[in-house]
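User: Hello, can you help with two protein structures?

Assistant: Certainly.
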Amino acid sequence: MGRISIIIPALNEENGIERAISAIPKDEIERMGYEVQILVVDNGSDDSTGELAARAGAEVIIEPERGYGKAYKAGFARAQGEIIATADADHTYPIEDIPRLLRILEEENLDFITTDRFTYMEDGAMSLSNRFGNAVLNLAVRVLFRLNLKDSQSGMWLFRRELLDRMVLRANSMAFSEEIKLEACYFIKSRWKEVPIRYRARLGKSKLRKWRDGLGNLCYLIKKRFIR
């Protein structure tokens, strides 16, 4: 039997963390031949996120230094599965679709799957300003790297753990999301695919700092193009 590690970074997500964990279709994944490891990375929460995650059955990792990339790196270090899946703790991503993504990975002999939030996005799931910011970043990825990604900022991926040994992941901030795609799809040229998913309105308060994170991600794309 194989193993899949599902990593969920969380910062003050007590409103959604239990629902996100309970949505994981463990029985279905196990019938596919995989043991399931659920890792929640508590990234400096000052609410009950960690306690609720543990109560829901997750293994909780404490990463006090805040940062989206920092959280994922802490999760990767503890992941035991040969397959890694990710999702956010705010119930925006369809974590129940992991078996579907896993089948695509297996049947199409892929290494990396990223997801497209825009094709089936629910009404109210993303503000117009966030849509505009994502469009700018997607354009930058196409111009700088010639990658036709519909969603360069999506936070749901499924990939073979062995890729991590070949990736150069330096970002500790929100830019980590675009960097892992660039590493998988551009630099190491893995077998990859972008799959449309449903994307829902979040539970709880957003931690995204629109202008700061957006400009930071754009600058990181430019830097990444010339300095890996």
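That covers the first. Now for the second protein you mentioned:
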Amino acid sequence: MVETHAPFAAASLRPISVSQAHRPVLFVVVDTEEQFDWSAPFSRDQVDVSAIEDVGRLQDVLEPYQLRPAYVIDYPVASTPASAARLAALAADGRCEIGAHLHPWVSPPYSEAVGPRNSYACNLGAELEGEKISRLKTAIREHVGLDVRSYKAGRYGFGSTTAALLESLGFDIDLSVNPHMDFTADDGPSFIGFDPVPGFFGERRRLLELPCTTGFIGAARRFGSPLHQAASASWLKPMRAVGVLSRAGLLNKVMLSPEGNSLHEMRALTDCLHRDGVRTFAMTLHSPSLKPGCTPYVRTASDRDEFLKTIDGYCRYFMSELGGAPTTPTELFRNLTAAGDRPAQTTH
């Protein structure tokens, strides 16, 4: 019988304090994966990775800002010669970093039933989850030529088993936690109670959690998580309470991503978190969004132009108006580990 995952608790992280005088830093994480129909059932058969051909468009936007994206790649990308070679060449030229990204339903061994619950790797049981992560790491080493040290769970499927497995499998960095998000309705994890600040975890050695940058904007943002949870109650869905709060300017949950979030929202979130003392920002996206028709966010060539324009506009704002600097997960690991483990103030 497959065990039910134990959630990874916010208390398991030891938040890292960064001086408010510190220059804010930005890194980019790309969930680098196969194209599939997001509205269809999960399938082992959808493994086309041709969108990887379009990563050059993203590189062209990021490189003027000296941003080197972290491509966290899954098994179909790592095991397909063309995509593996494309990313290996970028890494060899020092233009990106490579990490691991687990989509359980297209990663061997294929021993579990395919479905929503098992799309969260933390639900598979430690043995199967560990074997899938290990085989993915091996595939990246064999086909891309790198021993990756950073990991992001597909669908944010990170639990206490994942944390222990990453420690034992030689990873240094996790990128899976998505603060304020609750996936329990789909049998996934909950990250209610987490903040978008880095933290250390690990029992025998120190690993770094670099969470997604998700938070609240609006007049009622200080009550963000409990208010948003209350408005999300099933009995309020017919009244669209979450949308009412957003349109009224009271509360809007925003992720630092060009997928489903406007440049205005991304800037507003960054301004709010920066005032709270946050100095580490993660912009995230999916590689199939670089090819029209592969995700709900980019349906046409015009959509892609706007998508890339949003990324460029945000980077310009971050580096120029906010006075920020580029970084990568690996650079942050080295810098924050060297700085040590100091208690951090809670953010909102």
